[in-house]
Specification:
Two copies of one chain form a homodimer.
Chain A (H helix, E strand, L loop, with lengths): L1 H6 L10 H14 L8 E2 L2 H8 L3 H14 L2 E4 L3 E4 L47 E2 L12 H13 L16 H15 L8 E4 L1 H13 L5 E6 L3 H9 L3 E8 L2 E2 L1 H10 L4 E4 L13 H14 L2 E5 L24 E6 L11 E4 L2 H15 L4 H12 L2 H28 L3 E3 L7 E6 L4 H10 L2 E2 L15 E5 L5 H13 L2
Parallel strand pairs in A: 4-15, 6-7, 6-9, 9-10, 10-11
Antiparallel strand pairs in A: 1-3, 2-3, 5-12, 7-8, 11-12, 13-14, 14-16
Helix pairs in contact in A: 2-4, 3-4, 5-12, 6-12, 7-8, 13-15
Chain lengths: 488, 488
């Protein structure tokens, strides 16, 4: 077996992994007849000693040779060079010839059905117009200021520690800044211990629901409603009961009837600009909902992700601002202000609940990106965020008005909608045209629009779609409506 | 009730929230006797109409007045100005006088015990020396390059879409770059569909364990072992069985005995530099562990967070590189290379498993910070990461040698340790001195060191501590050892 030692040369400086060098060496010498067909190879331990490499490396090389069909292992006999060799055009053995890959399926059993599939979107194409679900215009996102601030902070010696572990609840600087901001703008009587910094509203939802719900618990949510939230509740094993939503929000009379019949654990509500219908929960209903929570001892998840983007008048105070009994878990986000892929948000809740949520959060991903948290705090403190929100609100209000006018004048007979008081999309019902066909036609003409089935149930077909206006300028809106018109 | 309309003046331009203006107005006029003690107030709806504000705002103002003790609500009678008013020194009513705060406890029931408390560390103090658990030196972290790259990318028009929603699995650019890097350096035969970008190794652990484990399932982990992992498994309801760890890693003979007796679902293993003892799992044991996994059909979580930091020889190939049957879920991280609070890591696994993990991840926090993912990919492509790893390894090797020499020469008779082949800490056993007392004394002298109880069980008291050397330069190490010496 000295032959192996003589023939297989390993170049420790090479970029090619050692195990590939070994398998390539074998292949070369098998082809050239130096290793004969049918030759029995020594064990991996022996080869490792001969070549003075780690045994794992030899096993990997043999695995590769086996996968490529050069060797075979016969039970209780050993490993042999195959008598019938694979047909390969002669030439350099490159990495591309490697065939050993990770298995497609796992070799162990797990309950695949416990993980509910979620629609996985790709990043939006840049060569098409898109009526998205109501997302901000990332072209105006204050990323430049954020990154500049990060850079400035990262150079300060005392900020270096924020690159270390610590602060699973979020940095004290961001929590104090946010607490003051929420006190002032939303009347939320919070202190820094009432706040957990999350990754967007979605992590707030996941954490809060994980803590409150046990499998089999009942959650109430509006219908039509926000799919991602419902899916998270179901992922956690909860049962979702749907409440009708009208122009004042979820129906509280129906909720009360349900409470009289059965134990409910949690009510999920989007107080501003309900997804998908964009309605705002009225003051009267907020007050009644709080009273019901106190009476029936359920939790309210108040997902106020869209508070900052109200156009007609001042937004309505959060229920959390009135809740003296600890029923409301308030969720907010910076993603609509900064950008969807810069994922920061927050939960405001009783301090004991925040501690539980922090413990769970640490188990999930340890902590947030602390230096960036401090950079966001800086943007709040120096007024950048307030200015950006104001600028965005003005811009999006104009874009809302422009799109609504376009839809009315150009497509008025095909569809109907209410002008939304806030948010970033118009909930639009198409009368006759089947939206799934319209969407197909539109795509061919360079416009992406959803097929109108997202909120359908067995009983109701909405044939409606959220037409996001915030991320389209006037020109783009006009083009998009023009394309839509040709598809009707 | 025209009095209310006359006396309560709202300044829409003021920074003070409207509800605070209203409550302050009431207090001022109650004090000055314009609103008499015992006066019955109209309902919130009526006041809202009189003041032309939202009813929620009025309810918030009344809440505040109630919390401060100015008004009281009598059941079935109404709300009245109190006959006995709170004693307050006269003066301007400022925001500081607000007493209405969020409740400490929730008003709904949830099973608090389901969330296991985790030690919540704060950021490290900058005025003390710290023997941490083995963390990188963030002073040399390539944050400057990362932030610069982010800034450059954020200005490119086609990169703007990476600020939008999309790519819950991680950007294709980072997954392809990482796949090539792992193929080349670790012999991991992955493609981009085998990779999920996570938030550090911790999220990899949480996702993988969530998918594999059901409550009651059995997990095997080394003892002494990594506390955060064990806690996550217990958080998910699994039962953790501990395997002894010696100088070659976890004991595979014991594992086989357990497998013969009962069904195990998963083995958790740190192949390089086991936490806390820093040993590397030997090739022999890796091969046997893989064979056992195939025989008993369990999953292996291979948490190779420390692969890049091996000093003595080349690191050993991952088991994932040899696994042809889909038993290994491989976890890695960038946090040790970039910085702990820049949270990026990855899972490598069969494509079907990665899809499940991506669905769950989307439910937890939607997606990663995509622009930063692309920036990290750039740092890999332009060689920055490879250079930084090489530089860190050289630096940390020197620091390891320096600390080991110091410990030997200065404290040799008090403690014992093996020189670690990799990682960022020395697992040090103290002979006689009680570490909990040493830690207290050290703190008084400006040195933070753990109390040696972290890994204790009912049966074993280790009186050992991980002395992190990577984040201390020679000078700091010398100071730290000097302080330690005075405490023994």
């Amino acid at each position: 077996m000295n032959l192996i030692k003589q023939l297989i040369i390993i170049d420790a400086q090479s970029d090619t992994p050692v195990y590939i060098q070994i398998s390539n060496g074998f292949i070369q010498h098998i082809r050239q007849g130096r290793f004969k067909k049918g030759l029995k190879l020594p064990g991996s331990r022996k080869i490792a000693t001969l070549l003075q490499v780690n045994r794992m490396t030899v096993v990997a090389a043999l695995n590769e040779l086996d996968a490529q069909g050069w060797i075979e292992t016969l039970p209780r006999k050993g490993t042999f060079i195959k008598k019938i060799l694979p047909l390969l055009t002669p030439g350099k053995i490159t990495e591309e010839t490697r065939v050993f890959t990770i298995a497609d399926k796992t070799g162990f059993q797990y309950d695949e059905k416990r993980i509910i599939p979620i629609e996985l979107s790709d990043f939006p194409p840049t060569d098409k117009l898109i009526f998205n679900d109501g997302f901000p215009d990332v072209r105006i996102a204050p990323t430049e200021q954020l990154i500049k601030t990060m850079r400035r902070l990262s150079k300060l010696a005392f900020q270096k520690k924020y690159l270390m572990y610590g602060g699973a609840q979020g940095t004290i600087m961001l929590r104090e800044t946010l607490s003051a901001f929420l006190n002032e703008t939303r009347g939320l009587p919070s202190s820094s211990e009432n706040i957990l910094i999350t990754r967007g509203a979605q992590m707030g939802l996941y954490l809060a629901a994980s803590i409150i719900l046990k499998p089999g618990d009942v959650v109430i949510a509006g219908s039509p409603g926000y799919a991602a939230a419902n899916l998270t509740f179901r992922q956690l094993g909860a049962k979702v009961i749907h409440l009708p939503v009208d122009d004042k929000g979820i129906n509280i009379d129906t909720l009360e009837e349900i409470c009289q019949r059965q134990k409910i654990k949690m009510v999920y509500v989007i107080p501003h600009h309900h997804n998908p219908t964009t309605v705002t929960l009225s003051s009267e209903r907020r007050i009644r909902l709080l009273a019901l929570a106190a009476k029936y001892k359920f939790a309210i998840i108040e997902d106020d992700y869209d508070y900052d983007f109200h156009y007609s008048s001042k937004p309505i105070m959060p229920m959390a601002s009135l809740d003296r009994n600890g029923h409301v878990i308030y969720i907010g986000t910076f993603t609509k202000t900064l950008a969807p892929a810069i994922r920061f948000g927050f939960i405001v809740a009783p301090a004991s609940f925040i501690r539980s949520a922090t413990h769970l959060r640490k188990s999930i991903d340890t902590q947030g990106d602390s230096l960036m948290e401090n950079a966001i705090a800086e943007l709040y403190k120096d007024g950048t965020m307030a200015r950006h929100i104001k600028k965005s609100v003005n811009l999006y209000r104009e874009r809302r008005d422009h799109l609504c006018k376009l839809l009315q004048t150009e497509l008025g007979k095909h569809l109907s909608f209410d002008i939304p008081a806030g948010g970033m999309s118009v909930w639009t019902k198409f009368h006759k045209a089947d939206l799934s066909i319209v969407a197909q036609r539109a795509l061919k003409n360079g416009l992406i629009i959803r097929n109108g089935k997202d909120y359908d149930t067995d009983k109701v077909k909405y044939n409606s779609v959220r037409l996001g206006f915030a991320s389209l300028n006037f020109n783009e809106q006009e083009k998009a409506v023009r394309i839509l018109k040709t598809c009707l």
